[in-house]
Amino acid sequence: MLRACFLATLVSVTLHAADSVQERVATVTNTPGLVAFWDFTKREAPGKRFTAYVPAGAKNDYALDAGNYVKDLWQAGPDASYADFPMLGAGPFGQAIRIKAETNPDFRPVLFVPRARLHDTPLDIKGPGKAVTVVVWAIRESGNHALAGIWHEGTDLKEKTTESIAKVESGQRQYALFAGLNKEGSACGHVSENGASSFTNKYALHKCNSAEQSPKVPADAPAEVLAKSWQTFAMTYDSKTRQITGWLNGQSGDRWLDNPQKDRLLSYAANAWLQGRLAKIPGLQEGEDPKFPADQYYNPPEDKPVKVTVISEKEAKRIELREYAYTKVKVTLLAGQETERELTSLRLNPWWYPHGIYEPKNDGSGGPFTIGRVIHSGRSVGFTGWIGGVAVFDRALTAEELAKFHALAKPSEK
Fold first, then answer.
1. Residue 333 burial (CB < 10 Å; 0-12/13-18/19+)?
2. Secondary structure, 3-state, 77-127
3. Which residue, among 87, 295, 282, 287, has the nearest Cα to 192 in the 3D structure?
4. pLDDT at 412
């Protein structure tokens, strides 16, 4: 009798846990705009490739291949397989894969949907007026690099690691979510209009950083610690507002970068702001570079300040700090006439992005969708930790929807 009661209780708990996971999956799949959702449980068949939940009637379930991009492009290192992605057996949706800190510099395993299987499908979000959201449920052990997206950084960059490359490819960036980049542990959204570089720098620099940053948690921490450590990383690009926004655990928050001229990379954005401003003034101005490409100017709207602070005022000279939606500018006025403008801060979250998403043709100029890593010339280890779910939507999700998704990261009843 006791054994029968025990078995009945066990079955009840198991079914309840299964229902809980199914409900979590349904919360994601029932959200409008879903393109693909990998929970690392759904497969083609037992032991076969992971596939995605897709909308009814979709013709592609985006099965994930395993590969070592170093072998593909440098012709060095071993093959990669699913065995290189250990499974946790737990997570927001019941399963998770591990991205390890590989010690072999010729081994960078990645899960991916090849370009040939995604080109011109709903996952291939591109062109003017298109919006995107990427959500990744993860536990970050270390690193600040890619979590998921279409972001082949190119292997044509002049790096020490590219001296021995066998296959040179230009940048094929579209959209991706990173674990911070310049602000490690934040949710960093990246979007590219040309697949290549920004502001004459060799890297793409249209990116945002959530205000909050995720902690580091050892991937081999006890199960009860891991269960409480899930973070919900997300990025949205809203083509209507032209904002790229990073979200961590359902929160975006404001983030500003002061003195951008001193930043190693975003100094290029500061110069793009300057060049765009100077180009509007008739004649060649001091500091103006007439060869700077006009399509790379960076001039967020500065029509009406959000806030004005008087820094100093003496006789006819007045210096103000004007805060706009995406910039802070020190303005000098003489007898009421503006005589000088100096950029003092750039807004990193949200980031103003005035372009469409890079639109590769079916000619080899488009990249794969990757999870855990992206293809890049530096070949760094990147993010390490657990990934328990990846979802892509063809619209910018709301704060309420992303907060609901973070609620799924709480310990399940399984």
1. middle
2. CCCCCHHHCCECCCCCCCCCEEECCCCCCCCCEEEEECHHHHCCCCCCCCE
3. 295
4. 55
Domain borders along the chain are 21-252+351-407, 260-347
CA distance readout (Å), 173 to 66, 76, 126: 20, 24, 10
- Say how far apart CA 411 and CA 414 lie, in whole Å: 8
Q: Which long-range contacts (CB under 8 A, 24 or more apart) does 18-23 make?
A: 18/414, 20/412, 20/413, 20/414, 21/93, 21/94, 21/412, 21/414
Q: Token match 């440098």: residue?
A: 74
For residue range 68-114, list pLDDT tens digits in order.
999 999 999 999 999 999 999 999 999 999 999 999 999 999 999 99
Question: Does residue 65 surpass a pLDDT of 90?
Answer: yes
- Omega within 30 of 0 (cis) for the link into 92: no
Among candidate residues 185, 204, 103, the one with its CA nearest the CA of residue 144: 185
Q: Which fold has domain 21-252+351-407?
A: Jelly Rolls (2.60.120)
Burial string for 267-278 (b: 16+ CB within 10 Å, else e) reads bbbbbbbbbbbb
Burial class (CB in 10 A: 0-12, 13-18, 19+), 35: buried
- Residues 268-305: pLDDT tens digits? 999 999 999 999 999 999 999 999 999 999 999 999 99
How does 144-176 read in b/e, with b if 16+ C-beta sit within 10 Å? bbbbbbbbbbbbebeeebbeebeeebebbbbbb
Residue 15 confidence (pLDDT) above 70: no
Q: How far is CA 208 from CA 178, 189, 351, in A?
A: 10, 5, 5
DSSP at 239: T
Selection from 233, 230, 227, 259 nearest residue 247 by Cα: 233
pTM score: 0.94
